[in-house]
């Protein structure tokens, strides 16, 4: 029955479009699988707290010694490589979907952060960068003094003298 369903999907299409579809399905999948071995960009979350900016990058199976993190001209760059290690004969792999190879992600930082005090932690395949804000960029609470009625009348009396 499964074969009949596949043939049904070609019903109403020309032989040329059928051939093009088969070609694209076969070679498109092969190209996609090959690209997975060469390029990838890890997922990154960035959020801002009251006192810092936090960058979290998913880097499973990336060794810490394969990471390069640097800031230059307020541009944060995370570079690294996830190496493909054959654990089975290539013919034994039924599917390769995880991406391997070198990667680089860059992010512009505002002038409000202190790039000299960045802290980096790597745990369970997640890189976390804590980028503190400069003191002048942190929110400041300004206390408002409220004058009482007695204080206002005393101040008025003193100025009237």
Describe the secondary structure blueprint for this structure:
Blueprint: H1 2-8, H2 15-36, E1 44-48, E2 52-58, E3 68-72, E4 75-82, E5 101-108, E6 119-123, E7 126-132, H3 149-160
Antiparallel strand pairs: 1-2, 2-7, 3-4, 4-5, 6-7
Structure description:
This protein is an alpha+beta fold. The protein has helices at residues 2-8, 15-36, 149-160, and strands spanning 44-48, 52-58, 68-72, 75-82, 101-108, 119-123, 126-132. The strands form two sheets. The chain has a four-stranded antiparallel sheet with strand order 1-2-7-6, with no helix packed on it. A three-stranded antiparallel sheet has the order 3-4-5, with no helix packed on it. The longest helix is centred in the first third of the chain and has 22 residues, at 15-36. The protein starts with a helix and ends with a helix. 7% of the residues are buried.
**CATH architecture name of the domain at 37-137:** Sandwich
Element order: H for helix, E for strand: HHEEEEEEEH
**Strand runs, count:** 7
Average pLDDT score: 79
Molecular shape: elongated
Oligomer: single chain
Terminal CA distance: 106 Å
The chain-level structural class is alpha+beta
Strand content: 25-35%
> What's the story with the biggest beta sheet?
4 strands, antiparallel
Strand order of the largest sheet: 1-2-7-6
Number of helices: 3
Residues in helix, %: 25-40%
Radius of gyration: 30 Å
pLDDT below 50 for ≥5 consecutive residues: which ranges?
Answer: 1-8
Q: Given this structure, which CATH class of the domain at 37-137 is correct?
A: Mainly Beta
Kindly identify the CATH topology of the domain at 37-137: Immunoglobulin-like
């Amino acid at each position: 029955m499964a074969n009949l369903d596949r043939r049904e999907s070609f019903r109403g299409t020309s032989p040329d479009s059928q051939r093009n579809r088969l070609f694209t399905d076969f070679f498109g999948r092969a190209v996609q699988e090959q690209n997975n071995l060469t390029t990838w960009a890890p997922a990154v979350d960035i959020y801002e707290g009251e006192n810092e900016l936090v960058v979290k990058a998913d880097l499973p199976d990336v060794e810490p010694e394969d990471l390069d993190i640097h800031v230059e001209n307020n541009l944060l760059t995370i570079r690294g490589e996830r190496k493909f290690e054959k654990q089975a004969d290539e013919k034994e792999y039924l599917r390769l979907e995880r991406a391997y190879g070198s990667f680089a992600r860059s992010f512009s930082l505002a002038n409000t952060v202190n790039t000299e005090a960045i802290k980096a932690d790597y745990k369970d395949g997640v890189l976390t960068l804590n980028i503190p804000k400069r003191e002048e960029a942190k929110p400041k609470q300004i206390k408002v003094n409220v004058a009482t009625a007695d204080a206002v009348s005393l101040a008025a009396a003193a100025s009237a003298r």
